[in-house]
């Protein structure tokens, strides 16, 4: 199984709402990632978890809160977002083998903040 | 911060023509990866290059990593309509971190 799943596919939320994005993989990968992608732009790294521990936070605002409950699951908790946070949020996973860490992406959650 | 630029930003070719996208990093990379993203889709891993001067082929696709490990290229021979999408290089800097290039959008007309 080489699939990364993400739910929901689409999400519309107001600036005062709290919501969560979910990601799951069953490839035995021990690194998981959150990216943000705006239209016609490359994915931008937000967070990296290695062995269920947060290893990279790319200076992301605290209104985004990641969580890795176990090696298969990754959540992104959203609170008090701004309209400019509207984007495609991509989850990815990879092995951790020295330099070899090709990433497998999920289909993404398209988020609209109103 | 580190930047990875790609040229061209956009290319429109007739089916059967060749296509090349170039990727340049502001810093030396530990590895370079290439991804393809179809319209409305998500990035899909194509290949990873690790060694200086490395060249790899996948059917009609040829990937090259520069000697200084700061640049790379992807060449597609005889494009097909199924090649449509945005091609991203992604520079590896260690510790599972990738910096994606700006991307090249390819359109192929039949």
Shape of chain B: globular
Please provide the ordered H/E string of secondary-structure elements of chain A.
EEEEEEEEEEE
Q: What oligomeric arrangement do these chains adopt? A: heterodimer
**Protein chains sharing the most extensive interface:** A-B, 26 and 23 residues
Average pLDDT value of chain A?
94
Rg estimate of chain B, integer Å:
13 Å
Percentage of β-strand residues of chain B: over 45%
How widely separated are the two ends of chain B? 41 Å
**Proportion of helical residues of chain B:** under 10%
**End-to-end distance of chain A, in Å?**
36 Å
Which sequence of SSEs, written as H and E, runs from N to C of chain B? EEEEEEEEEEE
State the helix count of chain B.
0
Shape of chain A: globular
Q: How large is the count of helical segments of chain A?
A: 0
Quantity of strands of chain A, as a count: 11
Feature tags:
heterodimer, A: 114 residues, mainly beta, 4-stranded antiparallel beta sheet, 56% strand, B: 110 residues, 0% helix, 55% strand
Explain briefly what this protein structure is.
Chain A has strands at 4-7, 10-13, 18-25, 31-37, 44-50, 53-57, 64-70, 73-79, 87-94, 104-105, 109-113.
Describe the 3D structure.
The complex is a heterodimer of chains A (114) and B (110). Chain A has 114 residues and is an all-beta fold. Helix content of chain A is 0%, strand content 56%. Chain A contains no helices and eleven strands. In chain A, strands 2, 4, 5, 6, 9, 10 and 11 form a seven-stranded mixed β-sheet that branches. Chain A is globular. The N and C termini of chain A lie far apart (36 Å). The mean pLDDT of chain A is 94. By secondary structure, chain B is mainly beta. In chain B, 0% of the residues lie in helices and 55% in strands. In chain B, strands 2, 4, 5, 9, 10 and 11 form a six-stranded mixed β-sheet that branches. Chain B has a five-stranded antiparallel β-sheet with strand order 1-3-8-7-6, with no helix packed on it. Chain B starts with a strand and ends with a strand. The chains are: A mainly beta (114), B mainly beta (110). Chains A and B meet through strand 5, strand 9 and strand 10 of A and strand 5 and strand 10 of B.
